[in-house]
Amino acid sequence: MSDSESPSHTEREKIVKELKRVDNKTGGRLTPEKFKEYGRFSVHDVIHTLGPWKQAVRSVEDRPVYSKNDVLERIAEASKFFEPPLTLDNFYSKTGIDSNVVYRFFDSWTGAKKEAGLCGEEESFPYKGREVSREDVIETLKGLEKDLGRPPKTRDLEKSSITVRQLYNHYDSFSQALEDACIEPDSPGNRRYSNEEIIEELNKVYSGENHTSSTLFKQESSIGLTTVVNRFGSWTDALKAADITPQDNNGKIPEEDVLQELRDVSKKVEGSMSSVDFNKVSDNSASLMVQKFGSWEEAKKQAGLPINSDQDR
Q1: How many whole angstroms separate alpha carbon 304 and alpha carbon 76?
Q2: Residue 310: how many other CB atoms lie within 10 Å
Q3: Residue 227's CB: how many other CB atoms inside 10 A?
Q4: Phi-psi region for residue 61, left (φ > 0), alpha (ψ -120 to 50) or beta?
Q5: List of the chain residues with pLDDT < 50
Q6: Residue pLDDT, tens place only, 205-217
Q7: pLDDT tens digits for 98-124?
Q8: Is the dihedral of CA 243, 248, 252, 253 positive or negative?
Q9: N-to-C CA span, the chain
Q10: DSSP 8-state symbol, 187
Q11: Distance of CA 144 to the CA centre of its chain
């Protein structure tokens, strides 16, 4: 459509219909950037046919205009359908009111909920009313990573059982907390690998090798060892997921992998881990530790685990 042509009624109808389609597809505020990505006409065609962008959008938007009281009432209503705390995602799924509307009236989602009378909803948090330990924070972050399928961000704590303030009681920064939880944060230079890609990489690195030392993986792969261990729980479990039998140069399980297995299992039992505890949780046998290190106590010592002579039997 040239600038000298006047838009016909048919052309106007087509563009209005396309604006509505993109508006329904994307949700939120319809911007020129969204229309450029999803629309079948150019932004120039829209403006030439319907006038300035804001005027064009107003001609197709049929969303209700909410007042502050409307938002507060909807927050109170939505809270009846979800376990606390009510999140923005849940609020939107129930009401269709997005964050842009909320932040038009309130400085924060928490502030909006408090004004709606939900200030006590956090009382259902498992950690509310008692001091949160570093272990609680780490456990929460790891749980979020597993549920979200990606490293958590600060805003994700809203969906968890701890608050940002509780996290900062123990850490100077959110990235420091992620590091303590052995979680690699997303960044432009830090690619997020799928389980399938990690398994493919493991098979690529160890194809034709007679050992499965994690040192070789560090040397040969661009995927961090921490990423692999965090994703599968342990180095041994990652190898198993890739159908690779852990072996050292002599066809035996590498010493470093045995020690890591001890550390991993110790996190799953209470108190000082005994050989009986180990056998109940691990696919390996405590006798393997004795063969490699001479005694169960020495194996735990090499792994940096506490020793209790009365329980370590």
Answers
A1: 52
A2: 7
A3: 19
A4: beta
A5: 2-4, 121-129, 188-189, 249-251
A6: 887 665 677 777 7
A7: 776 787 787 778 888 888 887 654 434
A8: negative
A9: 85
A10: B
A11: 5
